[in-house]
Structures are given as C-alpha cells and as structure tokens.
Amino acid sequence: MNYRKALSSMLETIGNTPMVKLSRLTRELDGEIFAKIEYYNPGFSKKDRIGLQIIEDAEKQGKLKKGQPVVELTSGNTGTGLAIACAIKGYPFIAVMSKGNSIERARMMKALGARVVLVDQAENSIPGHVTGEDLALVEKETQRLVKELNAFRADQFNNPSNVYAHEYYTGEEIWEQSEGKVDVFVDFVGTAGSFVGCARALKKHNPNIRCYLAEPKNAAYLSGHDVSNPHHKIQGGGYCMDLPLLDKSLVEDYVLISDEEAIQTARRLAREEAIFGGYSSGANVAAALKLLREKEQGKNIAVLINDSGLKYMSTDLFE
Predict the structure, then answer these.
(1) Are 227 and 253 in contact (CB under 8 A)?
(2) How far is CA 3 from the centre of its chain?
(3) Which of 29, 70, 78, 32 is CA-nearest to residue 194?
(4) Among candidates 166, 222, 186, 196, which has minimal Cα distance to 301?
(5) Does residue 33 share a domain with residue 70?
(6) Residue range 141-159, pLDDT digits in tens
(7) Closest C-alpha among 34, 36, 31 to residue 293
(8) Mean pLDDT to the nearest integer, 253-263
(9) Shared-domain flag, residues 149 and 173
(10) DSSP structure string for 1-16
C-alpha cells in the first residue's frame, strides 16, 4: 500500500498488514514466530478482509442490489468489517450478535452506522462464553431478519468469499513478507476461512508446509475429543459445531489451548512484544509456542494476530 498519496476511501486501507517476528517470546526457543498484525486493518481485525470481499463478490455476481439491506450473524469482527464496507458503499447493515460477546464490538458497529440486534444467550450460558447453542439462537434471529427485510445474507460460515479473501490476499502476503521461509501455519478457527485460505495459499508455494488447527482445550470438537466444557473464554471461535468451509485434508494436526494459556500469552504479547491482541491472538501464539517446544522445534511458524485487545477491555483479558 502506498500511503504517500491520499486514498479514495478507507476500503483501500484493508489488507497489506505488517508482519513482526516475535523475537522476545522465542528468545529461549529454537525457531521463529512470524505474527501478522491484522488489527492494522481499519476495523482492527482480520475480518475487514472478508467483509469487503463478501460485498464486492456479491455485487459482481448480482446477488446484492443497490440500497438492499445486508444482514449477518457475527461475534463482532465480521460485523465491523461489513459495517465499514456497507458504510462506504451505501448499504444498510444489520448485525446480529449474542449478548455473550464483548460490548465494545457492538458499540463500534453502531458507531459505523450499523443497526445491532443483540440476542439473549441460551439458558445455561455464561456472559463472555459464547457456545454453539448461543450461536444457534443468533442464527434463528438472523434468518428471520433476512426474510423480513428481503436482505442479502453475508453468510460468513458458508460463503466461499470468506476463504478467497485469505487465499488470494492474507496467505500471499504471509509468503511474501516471510520471504518464503514459513514451515508451519497455525490458526484458531471460527468460521475456518482464514485457516483454509492461508493454508491453501501457502501450500501452493510449498506443499510441505504443515498447517495446524488450534482449538479450546475443553471444547475440542473438531479434533474429535469429548467436549467437557463448551463455555470457554476464547471469543470468536470454538463453537463445537461442524464448519462447512473447513477442509480437514489441510489439517496436519490439532493444538489444544486452555483459556489460561490464551490469556497469559495475550498478556505476554502486550508486555514483551508491544502487540495488543485479543483472546484468539493469544491462542494462536500459545499454539505456536507449544509447537516450537514440541514437534516443530527449529521451524518458522506463521500466525495471525486476529484483532485488537481494545475490543476486550470490558472482559478479564487485561485486568
């Protein structure tokens, strides 16, 4: 991105985020971690990429008409990305979100012009711990609004544009910025769009790159473990449900991360690397550190810093 001249809109600031070596966290380990700082996007998360991709693809395919409302289920980050794209392009946007997600994201979407519909959690759910059961309630309300408003559904859990944004942009940027030195990619999955997209992009360049999927330790549904506690704290993923976009043939193995590991690693990232990320960013780096200590010693591991810690100031992440 050339910032030496004025840009036509904030949409041009999406993507081309910086990559930083986590040399302080890895100083006593054999190997490197390359962290892609996705909160440099205007909505402070990687989801700005898919928000723009989904809207532009829908326009090209004739699925989204001028002035038509856009509706989407979100934990907050995809909603923010869609709010940015819709604000610039002139579409009304309605975000549907569980009350279990951090309130900062709802407030940010409202500030960007979105209408935010907050859905009560399931009877046994805990604020700050969004489960698949909670998401099912959000999905039900999303479907109702799409029908009522004759809206375009962004459908991030099923829309291939989610994968394309990362396959043709994020993953290619990782390869270029690392100068092709990546041996391993690890990612905590929500929709699986960034995992699948980046894995495909990297494997096009080097089929031997190993791609690991990170899951909450007590809610490791995708890796086939018993779900002992779906109420984990790592917001934005680990919903204990099948993911239509996930291509398991890309998964080398699974890395299980506890709430405490994700939280403590996010805090270390801030203190030692001055990288202020959220829960899932902590989970990604915790998984990379675990791999460097165990089966991937001496390797170069790429991760995404998915969003900003500013989105979690009402939680216990940075107490």
Answers:
(1) no
(2) 26
(3) 78
(4) 186
(5) no
(6) 999 999 999 999 999 999 9
(7) 31
(8) 97
(9) no
(10) --TTS--SSGGGGSS-
CA 18, 23, 25, 30 torsion-angle sign: positive
Length of the chain: 319
Q: Which residues are catalytic?
A: 47, 280
Residue 35 and residue 173 share a domain: yes
Amino acid identity, position 295: K
Q: pLDDT, tens digit, for every residue of 79-122? A: 999 999 999 999 999 999 999 888 898 999 999 999 999 999 99
- Spatial separation of the C-alpha atoms in residues 44 and 30, rounded to whole Å: 31
Torsion of CA 99, 102, 105, 111, to 10 degrees: 70
Distances (CA, A) of 35 to 81, 103, 275, 301, 304: 21, 26, 10, 9, 6
What CATH number is attached to the domain comprising 20? 3.40.50.1100
63 neighbors 40 (Cβ within 8 angstroms): no
**CA atoms lying within 13 Å on the CB side of residue 247:** 13
Count Cβ atoms within 10 A of the Cβ of residue 208 and give its class: 0-12 exposed, 13-18 middle, 19 or more buried: exposed
Token pair belonging to 93: 């946007």
Over residues 288-313, the mean pLDDT reads 97
